[in-house]
Amino acid sequence: MILIFIFIIILVAAMSIPHAVFVLLLINLGLVLFLSISQIIVALLPRFQPKTKKLPLQPFVSVLIPSYNEPPAILMQTLEKLSHLEYENFEVLIIDNNTKDPEIWKPVQNFAQALGNKFRFFHVDPLSGFKAGALNYALTQVNLKSEYAAIIDADYAVHPDFLETALLYFIEEKIALVQFPQYYRNATPENQPVADEYRHFFGIYMNMANHFDCVPSTGTVSVYRVNALRNIGGFRKEALTEDADVGLRLYGAGFRGVYVDRPAGFGLMPYDLEAYRKQKWRWAYGNAQSIKTLFLLFGKIPFRSWFGFLVHLTAWDHLNFLPFAVLGAYSILLIPAVSITSLHRQLLSLASLSIFVTIVSKLFLFLVTLRGSKHSISRSFKAFVIHIGMTLTYSKAWLACLFGVKSAFERTNKFILAKIPSLLKNSLSELILGIWFMVGAVEALLWGTRTITPFAFLVSSLSLLSIYYVYWEITPTKIYSKKKLADLEIKYKNFLNSSNQTKTDSYGYNLAGTIVGKNPA
């Protein structure tokens, strides 16, 4: 509601006091140009190859798996993959926090026990702090010999050489983090544009992070020095993206990170629009929170690292909220009965330029990411449309953080809900604004005088309505995910209670697909 109120205020101000809005638009355009140029520059950096060093002995590693309401079969597969690691000195700690139904977590506990002494299961209820709280609890339970902590999401199937490979990159004491990219095993030719949209982040921003010495954590397939995590007090519970936050604070404490551009395992993409939107909101909002921490580190870390973090943390932020509000006002000003001035026309020009620069720069990033791939042009454009389809989410998140709008940690739904989320519910803002801008385009053709006017409305409308392309491309993920889950439930049927197929938990979700819901902590 606060963001709607801000939108209306800007809309009214654009009509009644355009001078004030003109200044805000100039600042907005300046930021858009700065970020877009910076992103284009870092996109052209060559691929970075970090150094390695063979360790004489195998240090002890604790693998931490935070879990809340996970489908048991999915988590069992994750644990089975870890049992095949080509490494001797390790343990696996599964921390189930606040899952209420024992028929969800007990089968996993039994499976972990069957895997042997290397696997330890903890069911903690209540436990505050969401994922950060679970990880901090795990750090109090690790083996006293543990020198490194690897964090794996509950849906990740890691390669057998994961730990052995990761430890090669800890070539000096200051390196406290080794991060691998996120790859997805429910990516298919049908939903390839969604997977490509994720890929641009790792191909550009994480590659840049090595060049600028500003490698953050991205939440999974990450390996840390245990003493470094304890040095900074562990994970911060109030951070929505606790991974980005901990990476920043490691640099603030004098440590460094390394990004390794090779898959170490495969996870699961969210299967529907609602889950995808929640995930991207959390990333954009959480990174905006981290920008506040970044400004506190100005002068305390090298400037190139500070600048690199700034570019990285704004990867999911679009600055289109203000331009969209101004366009909304202009559609009213086009009505012949309303007085329009040259300053109003300048507002339209600034707002349009800001939107155009964002769109062109983002398209360039995807072309760079997928260059050399088969059908690179069409794949780049499709992934770009997926990204632009989230522009309103990316535009609102940083503003919500700026104005202190609270945003709870929400799990990403990667499987099946008992009740299919409403498409209209998850696209209503884009639909209303998209139609509004379409009306503005018609008005501009009837009463406008400048070519930029209908063009600006049309481009903005299509950008917003691209959310339906996101829905179209992500929908096949559900079919594939459903089959994968069914296969795993057959594989692990001896550990699964047969009632899991029909019983529902307190959230009303089918237990075969429980993954989303507000953590009660």
Written overview of the protein:
α7 (192-211) crosses α13 (342-369), α13 (342-369) crosses α14 and α16 runs antiparallel to α17. This protein has 19 helices and ten strands. The chain is of the alpha/beta class and 521 residues long. The strands form two sheets. It has a seven-stranded mixed β-sheet, sandwiched between helices. The model is unreliable at 498-521 (pLDDT under 50). The chain has two domains: 2-42 and 317-472, no CATH class; 60-313, Spore Coat Polysaccharide Biosynthesis Protein SpsA, Chain A (Alpha-Beta Complex), CATH 3.90.550.10. The two termini are 25 Å apart. The protein is 54% helix and 9% strand.
Tag the structure with descriptive keywords.
single chain; 521 residues; alpha/beta; Spore Coat Polysaccharide Biosynthesis Protein SpsA, Chain A; seven-stranded mixed β-sheet; three-stranded mixed β-sheet; 19 helices; 9% strand; disordered C terminus
- Low-confidence runs (pLDDT<50, min 5 residues)? 498-521
Strand order of the largest sheet: 3-2-1-4-8-6-9
State which percent range the strand residues make up: 5-15%
What is the level 1 CATH name of the largest domain? Alpha Beta
CA-based shape: globular
In CATH, the homologous superfamily of the largest domain goes by the name: Spore Coat Polysaccharide Biosynthesis Protein SpsA, Chain A
Q: Which series of helices and strands comes N to C?
A: HHEHEHEHEEHEEHEHHEEHHHHHHHHHH
The biggest beta sheet is recorded as: 7 strands, mixed
Give the end-to-end Cα distance, rounded to a whole number of Å.
Answer: 25 Å
Q: Which architecture of the largest domain per CATH?
A: Alpha-Beta Complex
